[in-house]
Amino acid sequence: MVQTRSATTQNTVLVAVFAAVIAALGIVPPITVGVTPVPITLQTLGVMLAGALLGAWRGMLSALIVVVLALAGLPILAGGRGGFGVFLGPTGGYLLGWIFGAFVVGLLVQRWAIRQDNVVVRHLCVGAAAIIGGIGVVYAFGIPWTSVSTGLSLGTSFTGSLVFVPGDLLKAVVATLIAVRVHSGYSRLLDA
Amino acid sequence: MTGTPGLVPAAGAGSPSGPLAAIPAGYKFGFLFVAGIGVYLLSDLVAQIVVFAVAVLAVLLTRVPVISLLRMTTGLLIIVGVVFVTTGLKTSWAAATTACLRLLTLCLFAYAISLTTRFSEMLALFEAALRPTRRLGLNPEQMSLALAMTVRFIPEIRNRYLEIREAQFARGLQNSPVAVIVPLIVRTLEAAQEISAAIDARCYDSEPPTDRRAVR
To answer: Where is the chain membrane-spanning (chain A) (predicted)?
Structure first.
């Protein structure tokens, strides 16, 4: 397919503004959702959404931009962190995981989940995509990284990461509701 | 800061100063890369402590107030504390000390480098690093455009988010992420369409000149 200039521009702009959404969601005040007592930051929700709304490649590029800007020192990670120290620290692997996580969420949503005709099934499939990519893939990078960076055993860093699973599951649910709703309004979003 | 008005400086506050700020970013990252391998090769405790002291010195040379430095590294220090105790109990305290010193040394060097390098300098470095990707069929100009646009839009989208949240507060929906983020995404998608139309209308051409025949 020969890409026209306007399609290229539009893709670049979409990738850029979604990267800005991910970054902005990290620096807005945390939100208290439903039953959980602890306020959660919405940054990883942004990563799931980038994949689910823009598809694999563009979603991945959005996450990549956020990681690159954070590495460059822009304080856009949740809690106003940023800089190379975060990347080399114990949680750096999760950042790297965002890039591949967004890709996997995008791939699953684009190729499989959003094509389901039944509304309930579509919600369930998008949710599964958000959990596989946004939690499974991200943790698959994060946990070994923590273990290498701190010298803890894989088992210990796995156990430690379980603390974040409930919050992330909640974000996967929220991402699903948002993604299905936005796609039903903008059905051509994944075409390009 | 010069060059990029209204930009947030790198992780710390204020513009970078101190002797480290004068070193070109490329050398500093080269050093970080070597240090990253080096600390794992050092097995002697005294040598590790010496390198750690150098890292502390490097951070202090950034002339960032100690209070801000501590605030920046609180999260890291907590994790290092936990790691120290768990490793110490499970294996030996010597291994725990080594693991924590390595981690702290690397992170402190990294902070020192982030704090003494201008954001615009970092971006220039990344752009230089991206340049060879043209051979892989990627377009570095488009990537630079995207990076710059993201930086420009972060405060915009943050404000938009806060506005929508305030509006939903009146409906009692301020804690419903769906009610806040769906309008945010829809507005953002609309803005994206307008921006790309505006970019095309001004014939902003980020394609390399050789590729034009594909368009016309």
So the answer is: 12-32, 38-57, 64-88, 94-114, 126-146, 158-180
